[in-house]
Specification:
2 copies of one chain form a homodimer.
Chain A: E1 20-25, E2 37-42, E3 47-52, H1 60-70, E4 77-84, H2 90-108, E5 115-122, H3 129-133, H4 136-151, H5 156-159, H6 172-178, E6 187-195, E7 198-207, E8 220-225, H7 231-243, E9 249-250, E10 260-265, H8 283-302, E11 310-318, H9 321-332, H10 335-342, H11 349-357, E12 368-371, E13 374-378, E14 381-382, H12 388-395, E15 399-405, E16 411-418, H13 422-430
Parallel strand pairs in A: 4-5, 8-10, 9-16, 11-15
Antiparallel strand pairs in A: 1-2, 2-4, 3-10, 6-7, 7-8, 11-16, 12-13, 12-15, 13-14
Chain lengths: 433, 433
């Protein structure tokens, strides 16, 4: 598969997260010649938060992880497979997730509820846990081996237990590649920030290219930090950042059965632990988490199936942020808007249509539209002496910016999407995902 | 433009509606070598009902017609133009509709509020009323001429007044062609039924191919009957039939600024007038109106931009009809479902995804799916011994039937849609509509 023309030049440099181990393996379930399993193993004392798809047909691993998190067991590992979503698989699917978590728990020495699961791939096909389980010994040994390499220890097998001190090293690139399905490039992002006088690192990977929409679509995200953060604060931080990142992107308005984003905090950095997510000591961390998650979310849009344009939509002046988000998504999800942009056609009337169909009671006589910073319409009609030339020039570029002013209040929203091209039809008329 | 492969073999035979006159003309506004104006002129004593787009950015002619209907003036004519939607045109757009209605009213001898308007075409471009008005004398003369031909009268000009007795003759085909934009074929349907012991006729035309979704998208529909029906009953009949026809179709989930459906009853048949829409004397009429409107709605789907498959989606067992409709539309509007069908891929997992994303709290362990009458999944998982061969054979045909059983209640809904193909991208990346 050709790499998206909107892809970043290269996978970023991503430092290890102290207290986290990464290992990948090939199950042979669907793909040949590539890894399709990822084990993220975290030290004792780590905390974890996650958000999941709101789909009524949530997959078995989503149900497992939701229940496991609710049980309150401290986390030991996240196990991921690509190629089969284990969704709409009934009791067989439940048996598979139980067997997978139990099998991994036995090997790393924890309770099954300490093993969280995520799957992505085809829906409705039975997933045989034995195919996954055949990779478990290797995955666990690799975690140990990697730690042994990094830590200079000879005792690889011991390190594979939950008592070991993990250090994922430069495995992020392999981890990001192992979770891909229709993705054309692996997605990673990393940054550092201060919590008090301690430097902490955040590194994350994600996958997703189609079936991307709020809430989250066929999208998996795994972010880890060495910061010490109690689980309740972690959960609130993740929810807020998800709204501003993965829930602010859309490729095709379709929402998947398997979307999951996990945030692991190992605590290895030894920072002063905050009292809550609102503690001002976390101001830099909040911004850093936004940076990493928005970077990952935008990479997913840049890998949108068939995408040739990266589109940023800003809505301002709505009655509130929720109204602004609705209007922004109505524009971002409109097939007519997306095809017009694919055709580099400055057909701003379709933006008007999308604002109207959001159905929020907007007074069109106050609505204004700008494309690429050029005002096209104001106060409910095209501007006097409108010249399409600079707008057409903007639309010929890879990055398209649409701004809509509603004139009703102070609500704002920014969402990202891509265009709808022949490539999307090609990929989705052929690929069974 | 190539005619859709799903088009009917030919335009149907459509009888004249006594009391209704039809005339078409070419304004030269956007198209060359074709008519783009339609005048429907109805006798005194006619009643009219209409439903309009719910868009916040409803076009000037929609606002005009809504207000004119609310004023309670008896109808004299509907004036339609294709090529410019007169939408998002601000005060200039309002001036245009006022001038158009006034200019036509002067010629046919009625108050401006007796002239209803509909427009379709590009959004946001000013529409010069003088270009339309240049066709008015000819349109009015043609109405007279047609009546003169039909009625054997020599007095064409007198017949053009609202006092004349109209008979649209076989102009339906020309009328249907004059209102087309991206349509590849004109759309008409006709039937007869009894009201008491009187035979009445219903004939209708429609246009629409893209931007089609509840509520109604770039869709215009004009249905006329010679039945005598008071306006309040007519309004209720139209609303109910619209829910089961034009609001049960979707091409691309986009809703237009200009959607309007008009139902005119001239009363020329002289039937016993019902007391209300619920009067049992109307049972046959209700069914006949459903037939005509569903026929027109399905023709719009068959002309869906780039459509190669006609898809019928039945949802049963939902908590209520509204829930069933939501689930059916979630499936019908899913780009992933529509591209899979374009690719003749029996990828039923995407139907599961679409059921889930509707977010109605469905219990997936009771959900079943059938394609082409073949049960694919039941009770939340693929059926034992599933054989894809007959499903794939069904999907290779032009008509695809999807049935979803929810298992929660007695709510049902049927909607129609088409697939998402390269043709859709071709048309919409190029055409400015």
């Amino acid at each position: 598969m050709t790499v998206s023309s909107l892809a970043p030049d290269r996978f970023p440099d991503m430092p290890a997260i102290a207290g986290l181990g990464l290992a990948t393996a090939a199950s042979g379930l669907k793909y040949t010649g590539r890894d399709d399993m990822l084990l993220m193993h975290c030290d004792k004392g780590s905390s974890i938060a996650a958000v999941f798809t709101k789909s009524d047909t949530a997959a078995a691993p989503v149900q497992w992880s939701r229940d496991a998190l609710a049980s309150g067991h401290p986390p030991a590992a996240i196990l991921v497979n690509a190629g089969n979503a284990n969704a709409f698989t009934g009791s067989a699917g439940t048996a598979t997730v139980t067997a997978s978590a139990t099998g991994m728990a036995q090997r790393i020495g924890c309770t099954p509820q300490a093993v969280l699961l995520a799957s992505t791939g085809v829906i409705g096909e039975p997933l045989d846990s034995r195919v996954l389980e055949a990779t478990f010994d290797g995955l666990v040994a690799d975690i140990g081996q990697n730690n042994s390499d990094e830590n200079g220890s000879d005792n690889a097998s011991d390190n594979a237990s939950n008592d070991a001190s993990n250090n994922g090293g430069d495995n992020w690139s392999a981890a990001a590649a192992a979770i891909m399905t229709t993705d054309t490039f692996p997605k990673g992002a990393s940054t550092t920030c201060m919590i008090g006088d301690t430097t902490v690192t955040l590194s994350g990977i994600a996958k997703g290219a189609g079936m991307i929409a709020p809430d989250m679509a066929t999208m998996l995200g795994f972010i880890a930090t060495d910061a010490a953060l109690p689980a309740p604060a972690l959960t609130q931080l993740l929810r807020t950042a998800t709204e501003r990142s993965f829930n602010a992107i859309t490729v095709d308005s379709d929402t998947s059965t398997n979307d999951s984003v996990f945030l692991v905090a190992t605590g290895a950095a030894g920072n002063h632990a905050p009292t809550s997510a609102d503690d001002s000591i976390l101001d830099e961390f909040v911004a850093a988490l936004d940076r990493v998650m928005q970077d990952l979310a935008c990479q997913i849009v840049r890998d949108g199936e068939g995408a040739s344009k990266f589109i940023t939509i800003d809505v301002t002046g709505a009655t509130d942020d929720a109204a602004a988000r609705k209007i922004a998504l109505s524009i971002a999800n409109s097939p007519l808007v997306k095809t017009a942009i694919a055709g580099e056609d400055a057909n701003w009337g379709r933006i008007v249509m999308a604002v109207g169909k959001a159905g929020l009671g907007v007074d069109q006589s106050r609505v204004g539209i700008a494309i690429g910073g050029i005002t096209v319409a104001a106060d409910g009609m095209r501007v006097e002496g409108y010249d399409e030339t600079p707008v057409a020039a903007h639309m010929a570029g890879q990055d398209v910016a649409i701004a809509v002013q509603i004139g009703d209040g102070a609500g704002t929203s920014r969402v990202w999407t891509c265009d709808l091209t022949h490539g999307y039809v090609d990929i989705n008329a052929d690929y069974r995902s």
